[in-house]
């Protein structure tokens, strides 16, 4: 146990976490040349393509230091706010963290939020000034920033480059010298923390755990405390690039477990694994059920594909427990599903996986957050509104509450004005402003979560010329003046285009939506009126003008109707159009409300 070190790497996105992890694996000889491939820990294709880590992974390295063999478990953490709960569990499995700071970018919002998580878990922090090879690196200044932030000595900040490998030896030395060895009790009943799980279609769910006390043995009858379910440990082992089955994993160490579980929802990150017959009396605290934050409808482009979509979603859910869905129907789109996601990135990932892995073409509707509505008749009874069409009739409505977040933004002093205006436009209230240095300012806002979902990242990037970083966490529900803005095409309401909007902005946004839809909806043989309405009141109107007659193509011989059907099918697949009444609506139109600026 004295020779084990468990650590993670925390950083703001793009500060070089994955690259540095690769260098650590290289340096400790944990990968053979044949296995070498950039960003080894990012295993999903999507992760590699987007250069982000979605799921966290763990890897064990052997390293000889001062003639003594050590086992180093590196637990990787996802770098996106959508997955912050997983970050917190990975951190809880460690005794130390490498805090990576880009020598050109300095401290950013996620540097700080991840640092707080690490400090809450009493982790030993090893500051690493990364990318010192960059010509634009500013090592002295950024070291000062780090020293200010941590209250450490400048000598404690390790200068490194994931690109050249400079400083990697110093990092490993610090991991061994500064991070404490695990301190659990080998003689206590088994107590292990689940910090991740991965779905494997052949072997079922692989659970990644850190043993806090006791030992987990192959064949042992174990129990997951939160779910209350028990299983036999068919296989336990350590994780290098491949899995290495072992007879047991002891106190302090990290490993994987296979029990034949086929549904990812049975393994909850943050859960405690214990012995079935001799269970622990102290459960690892901090367990939370992950709650979806963003909801949207997913509909098949072709109504006939509904059952196939259901099967695909069920399969996806088996390996992504954070995806939730339930059937819903829309007057405009027919049968589909209301899906809950951790955030917008998660939503995009699901949509992309449905297309790539299951070959489904789907329409995704305007995403919204989850509201609480209360009627005058039952003012104490929460009605959960995950779809704007579930909002009770305004006449009987007492109040609506919406989820709020605390947003932290770090930017340059020059952009403070711009960032503040944006946040105020997004209904934010400033709660704090701190100058980290003369150049860099940290701003805190209380804001509605819904405003983050709607184009916030892009706007922030624009108003700060890219010099702003952003992080947030939920702070509960607050009463808001919300109304439902409905869209009518050809005088028919299209429920899938409705959105809940703050009353003060409804007029303006309704108008913009009409204008945007006018751009997006293709012209047809007839005029298409587009209207925005609140209840029975029309607040805006635009028209998509009819095509002139001579534009319609002539048809040539052959089995025309069949040919046309085929062509239409092809077109729908490619363009993702949906026929609603006699109007064709392209996928972008359903997202129009998100991109109004
Ligand atoms: P992550 O988001 O923290 O995992 O960051 P990545 O490891 O994916 O790195 C982000 C970008 O910075 C990539 O383009 C890397 O090639 C680059 N990068 C990472 N480390 C270094 C470094 O030490 N020096 C330089 N010049 N570039 C680096
Ligand atoms: Mg990465």
From TrEMBL:
Q: Which Pfam families match?
A: EFG_C (PF00679), GTP_EFTU (PF00009), GTP_EFTU_D2 (PF03144), LepA_C (PF06421)
Write out the annotated subcellular location.
Answer: Cell membrane
Report the EC number(s), separated by commas if there are several: 3.6.5.n1
The family database entries (Gene3D superfamilies) matched by this protein are listed as:
3.30.70.240, Elongation factor 4, C-terminal domain, Elongation Factor G (Translational Gtpase), domain 3, P-loop containing nucleotide triphosphate hydrolases, Translation factors
Principal EC category: hydrolase
Identify the keywords attached in UniProt to this record, alphabetized: Cell membrane, Elongation factor, GTP-binding, Hydrolase, Membrane, Nucleotide-binding, Protein biosynthesis
What is the membrane topology here? Peripheral membrane protein
Source domain of life is Bacteria
Q: Which biological process annotations from GO are given for this protein?
A: positive regulation of translation
Reactions catalysed, semicolon-separated, are:
GTP + H2O = GDP + phosphate + H(+)
Query: NCBIfam families in the record, alphabetically?
Result: lepA, small_GTP
- Protein role: Required for accurate and efficient protein synthesis under certain stress conditions. May act as a fidelity factor of the translation reaction, by catalyzing a one-codon backward translocation of tRNAs on improperly translocated ribosomes. Back-translocation proceeds from a post-translocation (POST) complex to a pre-translocation (PRE) complex, thus giving elongation factor G a second chance to translocate the tRNAs correctly. Binds to ribosomes in a GTP-dependent manner.
The name this protein goes by in its record: Elongation factor 4
